[in-house]
Amino acid sequence: MKNLVRVPAFVDLHVHFRDPGFPEKEDAFSGGRAAAAGGFAAVCMMPNTRPAIDSPETLTDADRRGRAAGIRVFAASAMTRAQEGDALVDFDAMDGADTACRALTGHGVCGISEDGKTLANDTLMEAVCASARRLGLPVMDHAEPETETIRRDIALAKKTGARFHIQHVSLAGSVALLRAAKAEGAPITCETAPHYFALTNEEPLRQGANAKMNPPLAAERDRLAIIEGLRDGTIDCIATDHAPHEPAAKALPFAEAANGIVGLETAFAVSYTMLVKGGYLSLADLVRLMSTRPAEIIGLAPPDDDYVLLDLETPYGIDAAAFLSKGRNTPFGGMRVYGRVMKTVCAGRAVYERRPC
Asked: N or C, fewer C-beta in 10 Å, the chain?
């Protein structure tokens, strides 16, 4: 292989591997293969599995499954038992668990999240914040409704000193709130996903449920605000919110269809094409957003032997049928892109290599 560019392997702070509980959608093995094919050597798995990752037992089970994935799979702890919004998880026990995450970051989990829903009880959220600050873990919040919840989270971050990481930012108003909060020194980071700077709310009219996610796609002004947030550093990183579903879950009427799209195998190419080829960012900027900065947020020092080789010159069409994920639910099928992942190395071992055509 020649004319390839080597960069640090990518780190995704927001994936759903559906394992355990939903093997028809994804499992750790297929999710790991998809991540490797997308250039990711480390991912943070959200806790909304079945059972939820809410105890040392469910955490170590998820860790065992993740170790078979071929890449580094870290897990976030749920905030409440079974994610029911009532009793808090034992965060000390979760942080002390012997996991792959602990070996590399010093913490049993990569963060604390009620992903898939927002914990609305302010008293419980303050207790979550107290534990997160004491343990040095980020509170990874699925902010819905977005701007209202982000406003609350900013206030909690200022009040408690807990470090917040706001997930999948999609609206111009949210970017403005976060920009102002950061200027005031609030301990907040945030992420967006490729679909929020590549697509608008017109896409579901064309593609139906394959363009349905939560938070939903927004207007063109929001898309442009997300890009500006990436440019000026308001948005710290790009995550995928990889959310695979079986075809039947997306074939329902739009209102009933499942939320979410797959993203691991398209994230870099869509981001490179839209942001770098589009003239908004440099390659170094994009690598920071997809590798070094997300690693910093979870306290991971990226190993030198985690890297990816990229073909930045040859255009290709995204083919969902060729995905290694079990999911085919993407709005990017057929899109002409640059930035193909040719090889991914994790811990010095090739975990993905594309054969030359």
From this structure: C
